[in-house]
Amino acid sequence: MTIPFALNPNLQELKGKNIKKTSPENQAKADQFLSELKEKMFAKNGIQVGNKMPNFILPNAVNKPISSAQFLRKGGLVINFYRGEWCPYCNLELSALRRILPQIRAYGADLVAISPETPDNSLTLIQKLHLEFEVLSDTDNQLAKQIGIAFEVPNYLVKVYQGFGLHVNERNNSDKFELPLPATYVLDKTGKVQYAFADEDFTIRAEPSEILKAVKRLS
Fold first, then answer.
1. Which positions ≥6 away from 51 have C-beta within 8 Å?
2. In the chain, what is the greatest distance between 2 CA atoms, to the nearest angstrom?
3. pLDDT tens digits, residue range 113-126?
4. 148, 44 in Cβ contact below 8 A?
C-alpha cells in the first residue's frame, strides 16, 4: 500500500496562515467556542466503534436520492462529514480523500461525503475539487444529529461568520445556523462502525493513512 501524504501538517500550516489574518477579537471568539464544544464532549458522545450507523437516504449533487444500503450491498463504506464548500480545511481533506479513492475501492469499499449544504453547493464543490465520489446533502443535519455530532453555532460566532459574508443558514437552506463536527467513519457491510474519528477542533482531521488501514481490515 502506498502511504498517502500526511494531511494534518498541511491543515496546521493553513491554520497558522489564517490566524495571522484574523483579528485578535475574532480569534478569541473562535477559541472560546472551541472550548465550549470540548466541554460538551461532542466527539466522545457521538457514534463510536461498534455502534451501527443509522440507515439513510440523502440527495446527491443532482438531487438523486442515494441510500446507505446501495453502498453496503457492495462492501464497506467510508463516510466523511464536512462543514461545507466554504471551509478551506474541508476542501483540503476532501482533496486528500480523492487521492486515496482508488485504494479505498481496491479494498472493496466506497466513499461518500456528507454536509448540510444544498445539492447546488455540493455540485459546486465536486466541480471545484474534481471529486469522483458521491457528495450528499444532510438537510438540517438530521443524520448528524442522529449520531450526535451536530451543534448550533452561537450568536457571537454567527456575527463573525456573517462579517466575512458567510451565511451558513442560507447555504444550507435552513433557518438554523448549525454544523456537523468534521468526522470520518469506516463501516463494514453490516453498517457497523469499525473506525471513528471526530474532533471538536475543525482544523484536525482523520489521516488518510489511518482511513486506509481501517478499510484494509474490512477486506
1. 192, 193
2. 50
3. 999 999 999 999 99
4. no
